Fold each of these.
Amino acid sequence: MIDVSNPTIDGTGPAALSICESLLLSLTEAEVIDAAEAKAVLVDAAEAHRGAISTGDQKQIHAAALDILELMIHRGNSVR
């Protein structure tokens, strides 16, 4: 079993990203939400991190998250 308390090997972020991306894909494929709504979810998340960069104490983490979200928004990774 993986020791998730080990800070040098932390897969929680990538795992969470994969789950969220899969959920957005599933929701759009099942026509629960459309592609525009899936994109809006990503835009909202990006805005939250953009705001946290200027006010938070973990600016590098929020900036990295923002970069990933913007890449997903522009590439459409979570929307089919």
Note: The chain has a mean pLDDT of 87.
Amino acid sequence: MSRKIEAKPSVTLTDEEAALRKTERGKLLFTSYQGRSCALFLEKDRLVEAFFFSGDADKIGAIYIGKIKSLAKNMDACFVEIAGGEICFLSLRNATAPYLVNRRFDGRILEGDELLVQVVRDAQKTKKASVTAHLSLSNEYFVLSTGTTKVGYSLKLSNERKNALKRVFTEMALIQDDCLIQGRESLLSIAEEEKMKAEGLRPEIISLPSIGLIIRTRAGEAESARVLLQHFFSLSAQLIRLLYGAMYRNCFTCMRAAENRFKGIIEQFCFEGESSSCISNLPVEIVTDRKEMYDELKTYESERGDKLNIRFYQDTFLSLSSLYSLEKKLENALSSHVWLKSGGFLVIEPTEALTVIDVNSGKYVAGRDADETFRKINLEAAEEVARQLRLRNLSGIIIVDFINMRSGQYRQELLHHMKELTAKDRISTRIIDITPLGLMEITRKKINKPLREQFKLCPRKEDPDGINKI
């Protein structure tokens, strides 16, 4: 590839490189920033989401034998100790059907009880990590969860596909009245049960909790009913093995480690379905310039059995960071100020209790109709606010101080516009209301740490090759 090389630091892109950077396909980049490993999702050359990897984040999804240390009846919750002496928060709403290993569950949760719990959220600031006693295992076709018997279907499945899948499971006597038929006879295939017995295991002695099923989008693409059932029985066998093993392991044992650190991110962005975050639903290319990350990605690809679009980027003249302007994008994502095209700007200030976002008119020159001017700024600001919520992973209570507009019609328009924008967010986001003073109340579910905290907690590593000193 021919390329003009100049001594000055500015980078000149060829037409081919410019087209590559502006491609409409999403790009998932695995690289490092200031010595910190990260994953960056770009769409139409805009940074949509970013993740920094740390040891703590690797606990999400891990399953432990925990011990109830104390009950907080006024909070309808309890505190559970897991490996390493870490104390976690468990809402009793997420423990209606726990799997106890030291006694039979009689409807009560008691101090000293030992039970299986799964980490669902990291510790954040002064808040402890959260766990659930409703365990969840998944593969590309299904999600099995304890604590329910209901069968759910991805909303992206057509009625035709949904009915076809329902028919397969009904004919196999696995589903009845939209519930998964319970019991070892339904959940274990004859082959899986014989395999367990050959290993000296006795699955018949397990007292199974209630188990429910979610049928994912990709199940509708399975080549045959046989493939579907193989994946179902394989996943149910994993769950039964997990429950069986917990009967004979010590308290605080990690029964299932967190999955490959890339798995959740890749599934979220690369596989169309209920967890897909691609706005355009176009194929995603995975690119990395780190050899160790490339090897790990290829290992995951092999384990999954699906062909992924993975590319190892090597260019001595133009780094991956320079090609996609990653330094500038990440600096902006970590800055408290966000400029709008109109000349206005946002100021984002996280506090202990909530996040405040202030909308300022800045350099925008008002016309004769001030209310119309403020309407335009607010609508533009709303689009950027929705983007920043996702990019920075802001959660909890969020108050946006929009420029006050006298027109009630304009306020309702802004409220409706924000609801439409946040509907694209993969994380549950609720637009509560907007006050007469222009304060919009938003709540967003807490999953993982905010981007700034991820960056601070991510361990910094030396970069001997110097290719990521951006």
Note: Residues 1-13, 20-24, 272-282, 462-470 have pLDDT under 50 and may be disordered.
